[in-house]
Design brief:
single chain, six-stranded antiparallel β-barrel, seven-stranded mixed β-sheet, about 300 residues, 20 strands
Length: about 300
Amino acid sequence: MANIVEIPFLNPVRFVPVSPNVMSIDSYLFFEQIKSYEQEVDYAQKWEKSDTIFLQISSNFGPIQMDMVKCTGEVVTTFPAVAKPTGIVNPQLTTYEISAALSTHDEGRYYFILKVGSGVTLEQFISEPQEIAEELENSILFQYKHDVNDYDVIFKTGIQFGFRCEAVIERFQPGFKSVAYIDQIQNLTQLSADTFRQYKLVVGDGAGVPDWVADKLNEIMRCSDVLLDGYQYVRLENSALEANRQDLYPMAGWTMDIREAKKRNSLRSENNNSPATSFTVVYDIETDVFGTFNGDPAGNNMQIVSTE
């Protein structure tokens, strides 16, 4: 039986094989796809130190690990892959997950090397460059999952992916949908009405992003649950990612129409830190000044009956 490795496109990190056996767009890193007559530009995937990268890989052989490597080739950290129970009867592939916390790593540029197997069975995959910063302005963290196992991902393990890129939400557009009744003499009565909030998701700063970033977002926005910086949005029906390109430049800006997932009719605040309904106040009082207490000092009421 052939050795099989599946790295779903929904994973937040883009990998390509170190030794590809099929030549396609998925076999080359971004800088390798820049044509000789196009402007040479540099791009690294962005992360904040507070982010944690979650990956899922399926394979019928192992072990699996991911090395975090400096541009000098020095291995900084090795993240092991953990086999996850899926509940699938007689699965052909084993599902593995990797959790890579970035909080303890220095700011700077790195690569990930995904290793599957060992010895003669070793297969390696290299990531796009990864840039880690303390904080990134005008970036959005996309957290996403799906309500069923699909898109070559076993979501029933509880995995929620996170992908960060240069993006902002802007161009607010109030939405309105109504149903009206028109009688025979053309009097109009509104029977029902709904409002909603529509926005443009604008991807790419002034320099734009590579096509693979747009491809990744196109995959992400078909999931049932997508949070943008913690707030749930959905892609507007049949909304396509639209590119803003320049000739001989290999990156582009992208836009997509999105809506808030939850229709809200009020501003609501919930605070679970309510004060206790009863509490005890303890006072340290000199009795020779205020007198003596009548009753248990731990009670709610303390009566002073005499002073000296």
